[in-house]
Amino acid sequence: MAKFVPQEEMSLLDQVQVRRDKLAALQAEGRDPFQITKFEFDTDSAAIKADYVAFEGKTVRVAGRLMSKRGMGKVLFCDLQDNTGRIQLFVKIDEMGEEEFNRFKRNDIGDIVGAEGEVFTTKTGEISIRTKSILLLSKSLLPLPDKFHGLTDKEIRFRQRYVDLMVNPEVKQNFVIRSKFIKFMRQYLDNMNYIEVETPVLNTIAGGASARPFITHHNTLDIDMYMRIATELPLKRLIIGGMDRVYEIGRIFRNEGMDPKHNPEFTSVELYQAYADFHDMMDIAEGILSGAAKEILGTYEVEWMGEKIDLTPGWRRLTMVEAVKEYVGIDFDAITDDAEAVAAAAAKGVELADAAEKTWGNALYACFDQKVEEYLIQPTFITMYPVEVSPLTKRSPADPRLTERFELFICHSELANAYSELNDPIDQRGRFMKQVEQRERGDDETEMLDEDFLNAMEYGMPPTGGMGIGIDRSVMMLTNSDSIREVILFPTMRPLD
Fold it and tell me: Are 270 and 282 in contact (CB under 8 A)?
């Protein structure tokens, strides 16, 4: 007789071979689980536990994955994991019959089964199912990670999200919250009479943002095309065409760095409203994010990256000049000369990018970017950005060096970006040309010249408010996640080879 070897002492290859041998034996018996096409179940673990009184003593049918097996001899206890949680199966030879009981004993952790039995409570008080029959629905040919150590390596978790969801069921909650957030946002905008639309992912021009695009090739047309870096310019075309309130929730692709806040493909919502401005967009951003927290979490108080965040409506609004004066100590309102502005920034240890022009506006933005963002913990709208960094934004009537733009910061992270949209086609062409000059100097993240968009603008674009909200970062905040990979089911990963 072959010596029994505990599974934990077997090599991975041995465990896989044992499972394949079991499958082959089942197939030889005419019991191939992969031939089963359907299993009718009538409830789940969460429903049973939520209303035990109604289920006690009743026969139920459940389906899921075996996550543990305990006991020996004539009684086994198993944990069945379904879409809603886990419930214990009480498997006894007297209840099932010797033949079916012995067949079930050959099942492995990870196998998917359908079970039928009576709901009851064990002597230890655990709600369970006294199983009458169990049907193997799918054979797991690979063993699950060790039950004591689980799957904790983040690289493996993100590469094999399917295993992560199996053995770390709490991970699923992040994606339940993500789904609820998107649903809430849709309802919020739909209730404001916005229309959800779809725009092209592949474009002949990468526009609407300052970012390096992914390039692909269209064989039939024999042209290079860009995966979109924003949905802004197509959506503005729709505003010009008379669709006064539009939004799109979609994937954006940017060929740039990766870190805990950035993934090359991410999801955003962009929305545009005719006859509105950036103040209206602030109200919408605050309404969506605070409302989603209250609706989904039941509170305005969240914790993110070790900070307690209060999302109660009434968020702080600061101009960039005010923020730099408060946190850096430079009053750019009192400076009118470019050289003086650059010198004041340099005195505070602020450096301007090599490609940037040495202007008042670039000096102001550099001070904010390098010295202020780290202080913005509670929800704060930073408004009135320099025109140099806002090529698609309407100038401020009060100060043409500035634009009617805001970014929303929470826990020193940008969650939304919005404008009073530039609708002057002559001004827009001039700003595009400045971007083209920067591109010719080697900055491949600047805007491309979009002649068709300029053509559309010349037909007349109404005053418009527009905004983009990062869905991934919003969900990071709602789930207290410190990495964007925790809220994207399949984040971008370097191939193992």
Answer: no
